[in-house]
Predict the structure.
Amino acid sequence: MTVKMSASPLQLKQIIFSKVEVEAVDDDSAFDADFDFDGVLINTEIMTAIKEGEEDDPQNFIVALKYEIPNEEEQEKTVPYTIALEAQGWFELAPIYEIEKRKDMVTINGASMIVGAMREMVSQITGRSINGPMTLPSLRFVPSDDESA
């Protein structure tokens, strides 16, 4: 199979982590690299802002993402680490899309890109931690039914 490559119309210009908390869970259970996240509570919150002055033709956006695995007592199972992450990404979108759809496109795709960076951060931190390396699950973000598709 041949695959062609070109630059994406959505570019991540910068990412900044404002919160990184990874705490090993003191548990006698053995954890391994292929930990199954089924039944684990994962909280996320996404906020998107358009650059001031670009409201009529937005091309620059900030996407802020909070990602948390709280390891609450009522959870079905314990995760090797309690996680709390916050990051902001600056994104630039080529003006080839309808103005009304741009914010949603950047929110969905930008959040996915930020989660990728968060997965790498947690993998690096836990690589030398007591419970061993952990890779966060990939997440899929989709607009809710009451928002634009």
DSSP finds one helix and four strands in the chain. The longest strand covers residues 10-24. The two ends are 31 Å apart (CA to CA).
